[in-house]
Amino acid sequence: MNELFPWRRPVKVPLPPGVKPQLIRHFSIGLLYPVTEETMECRRKAGLDPVPPTAHRFPDAAEDIRTLIRAMKVDKTIGLDLDTMEYLFS
Amino acid sequence: MTEETGISRQDSTFPRYAFFLGCVMPVKMPWAESAIMKSLPLLEIDLTYVTRSTCCPRAGVWISVDKRVWLTLAAYNLLQAEHAGRDLMASCNGCYVTLYEANKTLKEDPAELRMVNEYLKTTNNHYNASIRVRHLLEVLYEDVGIDVIRRKAHRIPLRVALHPGCHMRIFEDGRLVRYFTELTATLVDEVVHYEAEQICCGLQANLADREFATYERAKEKFDAIKKLDPDALVIVCSGCYDQFERALKILEKDIGYRFDIPVIHLAELLALSLGIGPDEFGMRLLRTSPVERIIEKWEGGMG
After folding, report:
1. Quick check: is A12 in a domain?
2. Which of B8, B28, B153, B169 has the greatest number of CB atoms lying within 10 Å of its CB?
């Protein structure tokens, strides 16, 4: 293909459809699942802090992840706008 | 003296670990997190959390898309434990494999470590690759020791089945599966085995084909386990638990399928056997099926 279309470049890395929403959550909150009111209530009853000491409690850690993704330019290759959290390609 | 580490227990103070929670456990399995945090100190493990942790991330996705992402985001989690001056402990097999393999790569390949640190510099961070990544099973079996657990724990009159999960077979000698089986057998009356024990939960397949993952993987296991009617299905992997929970919801909605055997974490058995009451670690909360039968048998055994 390269010989026939030397200027053609892949515009995105193929991602399984199931992964796409997961990556939005990963890059938004740092983890794949959010903490809900129900989660907090159950954690309290289990003798834990309602918000775990993960990026859920430290949102700057999620900001670090976005910084790293931008530094590697992976947002460009997978076609995800990290400001709007929308995919540029269907 | 443990064969694998060569560390004698009397040579050191309590082993110090930072517990990596991952994505699933803090949100869907608070009973497992609480059981681990309450049980391990009773076994002389100095345990804190890996704070500021993010998704491990999933090696199965990122190695095929962009290896730099896998190594850099894993290093971001590893350096949080390094900053705390502790080795990292994981319970989820998926998180363990991701972090163990990334750490091994970064320890063995200076060029990869340099590359990762160039990216980490953008967040004012640095990783020295100075820590170890250990599985909960290694900590229990090698650091604590099965004899100590046997002495301290009260055996629970339960009959359980096991789901080790694929990534528990990371080492060629299969030691993690052996630890899992022996530890469980120490805590309960009987471990029952079934043909589909080694079948995958379907988590990875779920990304490509949800029907296959649900019907040809998870349901295959559930069907085989139901025939044995154990009191519980014991796991340690949060990824497998997440897949089982998802598959059970789909199966119930699609075909009215029921799996009334509770899926529990090994640490819950450990907590109960150490005398920690079920409500102290939230055992009844957020379950796929009720755990009353387990609690009744535990109460009977304690009485």
Report:
1. no
2. B153
Q: Computed over its alpha carbons, how large is the radius of gyration of chain A?
A: 18
Residue-range domains of chain B with CATH:
9-135 (1.20.1050.140), 146-302 (3.40.50.11810)
Question: Taking an 8 Å Cβ-Cβ cutoff, which residues of chain A contact chain B?
Answer: 13, 15-16, 18-19, 26, 30-36, 39, 42-43, 45-48, 52-58, 60-62, 64-65, 67-69, 71-72, 74, 77-78
Neighbours of A6 (CB within 10 A): 8
Whole-complex ipTM: 0.90
Considering only CA atoms, which of B200, B172, B165, B37 is closest in space to residue B94?
B165
Residue A7 lies in a domain: no
Q: Tens place of pLDDT for every residue, chain B, 303 residues? A: 333 333 444 445 789 999 999 999 999 999 999 999 999 999 999 999 999 999 999 887 888 788 999 999 999 999 999 999 999 999 999 999 999 999 999 999 999 999 999 999 999 999 999 999 999 999 999 999 999 999 999 999 999 999 999 999 999 999 999 999 999 999 999 999 998 999 999 888 887 788 988 988 899 999 999 999 999 999 999 999 999 999 999 999 999 999 999 999 999 999 999 999 999 999 999 998 999 999 999 999 876
**Cβ neighbours of A52 in B, within 8 Å:** 21, 26-27, 33, 49
Shortest CA distance from B210: residue in chain A? A18
For A55, the domain range is 19-87
* Structural domains in chain A (count): 1
In this structure, what is the dihedral angle of CA atoms A10, A13, A18, A20, given to the nearest 10 degrees? -100
Residue holding tokens 């159950």? A42
**Residue A27 CB contacts under 8 Å (≥ 6 apart), including other chains:** A62, A65, A66, A69, A75, A80, A82, A85
